[in-house]
Amino acid sequence: MGYQVIDPEAIDPTPDRPCVQRSIGTAAALSEFAMNVYEADPGEQLPVVYHSHDEQEEAFYVLSGRLSVETPEGEFTVGSDEAFVAEPNSPHRAYNPEGASDPVRVLAVGAPPVDDDARAYDPDR
Question: Which CDD domains match (predicted)?
């Protein structure tokens, strides 16, 4: 058996990301799913470019603020205590709009965990 209590604020942010990303999954050495906390100021996007995943399912649960998600089917606005879910092969880009008045804080969970499964998506193609 194994148990851990992890304070996301004690995790160093992942370098080279467009917003603050703290990987709870990496800190806990999780092997079956990824878990991250994102903090994005107005004008910042979450984790990577407009993308999709071949295998990974993703869920973004908004802890505070409002998250915008661009998809080929339209724009979604996700409020505090709401979740946005993307199935595999479903392009999406999560971000905090430039004109937002507050930062957004999001808990993101994905399974299976992947390092390089994100495939860039070009909406103009």
Answer: cupin_RmlC-like (cd02208)
CA distance 3 to 23: 17
Nearest to 61, CA basis, from 94, 84, 95: 84
d(CA 30, CA 65): 27
pLDDT at 100: 96
20: enclosing H helix or E strand = strand 20-23
What domains can be seen in the chain, in order of their start residue? 21-117 (2.60.120.10)
Distance CA 112, CA 96 (A): 26
Global pTM?
Answer: 0.90
Question: What's the number of CA atoms in the CB half-sphere (13 Å) around residue 59?
Answer: 10
Token couple for 27: 């800190």
